[in-house]
Protein 1
Amino acid sequence: MSKRFDKEVFIESVKSNLKTLYRQTLVDATKQQVFQAVSYAVKDTIIDNWMETQKVYEEEDPKMVYYMSMEFLMGRALGNNMINLTEYKEVKEALEELGFDLNVIEDQEPDAALGNGGLGRLAACFLDSLATLGYAAYGCGIRYRYGMFKQKIENGYQIEVPDNWLKDGNPFELRRPEYAKEVKFGGYIRVEYDEATKRNKFIQEGYQSVRAIPFDIPIVGYNNNVVNTLRVWDAEAINDFQLDSFDKGDYQKAVEQENLARNIVEVLYPNDNHYAGKELRLKQQYFFISASVQAAVAKYKKNHSDIRKFYEKATFQLNDTHPTVAVAELMRILLDEEGLEWDEAWEVTTKTCAYTNHTIMAEALEKWPIELFSRLLPRIYQIIEEINRRFVEEIQKKYPGNQEKIRKMAIIYDGQVKMAHLAICAGYSVNGVAALHTEILKNQELKDFYEMMPEKFNNKTNGITQRRFLLHANPLLADWVTEHIGDEWITDLAQISKLKVYVDDEKAQQEFMNIKYQNKLRLAKYIREHNGIDVDPRSIFDVQVKRLHEYKRQLLNILHVMYLYNKIKDHPEMPFYPRTFIFGAKAAAGYRRAKLTIKLINSVADVINNDKSINGKLKVVFIEDYRVSNAEWIFAAADVSEQISTASKEASGTGNMKFMLNGAPTLGTMDGANVEIVQEVGEENAFIFGLSAQEVINYENNGGYNPMDYFNNDQDIRRVLMQLINGEYAPDDPERFRDIYDSLLNTNSSDRADTYFILADFKSYAEAQERVEKAYRDETGWARMAMMNTACSGKFTSDRTIQQYVDEIWHLDKVTVEA
Ligand code: 26Q
C-alpha cells in the first residue's frame, strides 16, 4: 500500500535536514537535532499522502466531521506517525546503523499535552481511528503556548512547572496564514434596518478583535495513505493602525488587542472535571469556535452554493459543552452573514451540531453569568436569548403551566447561561460515553430532557487506539500477538479474541507472563532513574494512574496501603505476596485537597519504602509527571488496574481499557465502562467490589449514610484514620492531614461527610485486594486471567466507537487514498 521505505533515501534525508536546519553532521548533532531531522524526514513522506488525501476530499466531496474540542491530548507524534506509516521497524534499523537508538530519539520529543485527561485523550484516539477508517475529519482546537503543566514532586508536594512544549519548534505542524480568520469580542450591537432586504442588520461596533491563525498537524491513518488534519488556532494581534495618524484611543486599543491575542492562547486550564467560570476561558472557547465555524462554512461555500444544505457535508461533534458556543456562532453566520431566516438557520444548525456528555459531576457543569457572557459576546448572547425564548415556548406547549420544567430546563435561568441545556436543545444527538453513564443521564441527570426528546439520546461507549497503546507501547506483546493470530488486530481489534484458544496453553502462558516481566523490568528501570526507588519486578505491580480527583478515590487506595502496612507490622510472620503500589496523578493547581492527597501518598511511601523491617514486602511509588508518553510504559507493565471510582461518578474511564488490552485485570467498582469490561471478560477475570451506582444514588437522594458508623465499628478503619492525625506520616506536623481526616468524618456546610463513600467501600475493597493476592499466587490461573483480559478487549477499540458514531450519528462517506 504505502510506498516502499527506502533506507538510503531516508538516511540521506536525515543528513540533509541536519545540514539545512542546524549546519550539523551526524557525528556532531545533538539528540534533539537528530530528533528534529528524523521528524522532518518522516514529515516528508506524510506530506505526499496529506496532499493526496486532500485532493481526494476535493474530488469526492465526502461529508466531514469537525471534532470540536478544547483539548487534544496527543502525546508524542514521531513514534506514532512511524507506526501508522508502517515504517517504525525500518527507521529503527536505519538509525541503529547510524549509531542511534530510536527510543532515545523518541524521548527527545516533548508530549503535545494540549489536554487534561480522559476527554482530551479520547479526542486524540478518535482522530487516529477516523484517519485509519478512512473518514474525512478535522480536529478543531487551540494551539496553547503552554499545555498541561509539568509536575515536579518536591518534598512530597506537587509543584507545577510551565510546559514550554514549543521551545525547540514543532516539526510536524504547518502554519497556514492564508486561512486566517478574525474573531471579535465585546463592544455593542447596533441594529440598522436594511431597505434592500427588509430585515434588521446587526452590526457589532466598538469591539476588540484578534486574528486566528491555523496551524495544521497531520493525523496519519494506519497503512492506508490517509492523512487528516488537526487544526489548532493561534492568536495574533490585528494592528493595522497607522503609526502617524493614531490618536490616544487607537493606541490604547492597539495595546489591548496585543494583550488579548497574547493571553487568549497562552495556557490550557488545568482543571479536569471542574468548571472554573473565568472570563479568559470563555474567550478561548469563542476564539477557536468562531475561527473553526467560519473556516468550515468558507470551505463548504467553495464548492457549494446552497448554504441551507450545509449539514449534508458537515457535522460538528461538540466534545462536552466547552465548544457549545458553536451553536450560536453558526446561527450568527447563517443569519447575519448568509441572510437566512431564523427557521432556515435553525434547521441547518440543529442538523449540524451533536453533543457528547462526559460527566455527571455537578461541579463540572458550565454555567456562565449573563453579565460576563453578554458583555464578551453581545451578538452571540442575543441569539441565545432568542433560542431560549423559543425553547421555553416549546416547553410550555408540551407542559402547560409547569413552571418547574422551565426552571429546570431553560437555557437562561437565574442569571446564568447553561451550556448543557443549549447543547441538548440545539443538538440532533446527545450521547453518553458508556452504557451505565448514558442510563444515568436518561434517568437522573437529564431526565427532563430525555422525556421531552428521547430520540436524541444515545450511547457511544468510549474506546482507545490499539495502535498507540499496544503496537507502539508494548512491542513485545504486539509481536507475540501477531505471531499467534496474525496482524489484523491492528485495524480490527475484534480479532484479538482469537487469543482465547491460547489461555490454557502452558507455553503461551509462560511467554505472555515473560513479556509482562520484561515490561516490568523496563518500568522498574524508569522508576529507579526517575524516582530513585528500587522496586522488585517480581512483586505485584498494582497501578492507579489518572488525574487526581476525590471521586476517583486515590485516597481509598492509599488508606488501604496504610492498612496493609499495619497488618504486616502486626504480623511479620504472616504470608504476604510482595506488592508495589504505583500511583501517577496530576492535581489541578488550585485543588487543595487533591494536592494534599499527593503529599499523603508520598509521605506513606517515605515511611514504608524506608522501613527495613518489612523486607521490601511493600513498596509505594508516586511516578512524577504522569503523561501520555510514560503512560505507554506503565500500562504495559501493570499487573492490576485500579479503577475504584465511587460508582456512578466516572462517566466511562479509558485508562481501564488500556490496562485490559495490556493484560492487567481490573480491580474496580461497577462504574463507567468497568461494567462493560466485566461483561466482556467475565466476572471471574476481574476483582469487583463496592456499592453499586444505584446504591450510591439512593444514599444521595435519601440520606442514611453515616461514615461515623464505620469509624466506630471497625477498628482497622479507625486505626488508619487516626494515623492521619497522630503524626504517623507527618511527625513534623501532625495536623498536616487533618483536612483529609475531616473530609471523611465531619459534615461541613456544603458537603456530607465522606462524599465519595470511601469508608462504606473500604472493607469490600480490602477483601477484593485479598482476592487479588490469592489469585496472583496461582501462576497459571493468573496467566490465564491476564490473557483473557487482552483477548476480550476487542470491544474497547476507538475504531469500534468511531464506526458507531459514523453509523448512528454522523453518516460519513468512507474514502480511499492511493499511494
Ligand atoms: C470546564 C470549564 C472550565 C474549565 C475546565 C472545564 C473542564 C475541563 C476538562 C471540565 C471537564 C474537563 C474534563 C472532563 C473529562 O476528562 N471527563 C472524562 O471524559 C472521559 C472521556 O469520555 C471519560 O472516560 C471520563 O470518565 C471522564 O471523567
Protein 2
Amino acid sequence: VVSCKATNNGNQNPTPSSRKTNETTYYYSPTATKIIDFKPPPFSKLRYRRPAHLVDADYLAEFAKAVNLMKDLPPDDPRSFMQQANVHCAYRNGAYDQVGFPDQDLQIHFSSLFLPFHRMYLYFYERILGKLIGDPDFVMPFWNWDAPAGMTMPAIYVNPQSPLYHDKHNVSHQPPKLVDLEYNGTGKEITDEELVLRNLKVMHRQMVSGAKTASLFHGKVYRAGDKPSPGPGSIEAGCHTAIHMWVGDPREEYEEDIGNFYSSGRDMLFYAHHGNVDRLWSIWDKVQGTMGEHMDDINYLNAAFYFYDENANLVRVKVSDCLDTKTLGYDYEPVEIPWLRTKP
Ligand code: C2O
C-alpha cells in the first residue's frame, strides 16, 4: 500500500523526466491527527458536470463566488486556495517519501494511481467550493478539449476580470487558437481543420485502439517499496501532458504554473483540464468496460490518499472507493464524442 507520511522532507529531487522544479515556499503539510475513512455522503440525485464552454451566466456567477470565497479563506485553512493547490505539490516528485520506505519517493504520476488520485482531488475541491456557497450540489465544469467545440481555452478562464483567470499562460495559445493534443513544445504548421482531425485521431488511439487493457489506459500498478513511475497510461502520457505543456507559460523558467507539477494546482484551468481527464476515464469504462488485471490487485485497490474534506476533516480514501463516479454522486453531462468514430 502506498501511503503518505504527515511531514515533508522538503527535498527537491528531480522529476523522472528531465524537467526540473524549483519549488521553494509552499508545502501542504497535514497537521490533523484524526483521520476519517471516507464514506460517500448520501445524495438524492446525481450532479452533472458540464462542459466549460456551455455554462450559463448564473452558473458562472456561482462558480466565481465560490472561488473568491476559497481565495479569502485564511492561508492556514486546509481548504484555502493555496493549501489546495499544494495538495498537488505534495503528491508529486519528491515531496514525501513512501511510508516505511524512506529511500523511495511518493509520486502518484506515471502510474495507475494517476486517475484515482486526481478524481478524488477534484471531488474534494468541488465539495469545498459547494460548501462555501451553501450548495452541496455544486459541480465544477470540465474542459471538453477532445471535441472540436471545446478545442480552445474556455472563455470563462481567459477573462482578466474573473477569479478564474490566471496570468501565467502561453499568450500565443489564447482563443481562438486550437489545442494540439500532441504538443511537446513546438507548434505545427497545419491548418485548423487538419489539427482537429489529428486531435481526434490522437483521442481514438489513446482511448480506444491503444487503450484496450487497464495497464495501457491506467498505467502500471505501483506497489509500496517500488521505485516511483512504473509507467503511465495512454492519456496521462499523451493528451493530458500535451495540454499541460500547451497552456503553461514559456516565459516562466519551468513553464509555470500549469506546465509543472509543483505549481499546476494554482491555475483554475487545471481543475477543468482534469475534469475532462476524469470524464475520459468514465467514458473508457463504458467503451472498454474492463479494469481487468487491476481489479485483482489488492495493492491497487487498497492504495490510499489523504485529503481534507469540505469540513476540514482529514479523510483517507482508497482507490476502491472511487472507481465509479456515480457512487460519489456525480457524472458527466453526455456530449458528442466525435473521436469514437474517427479511425487512426
Ligand atoms: Cu497531477 Cu495533470 O497532473
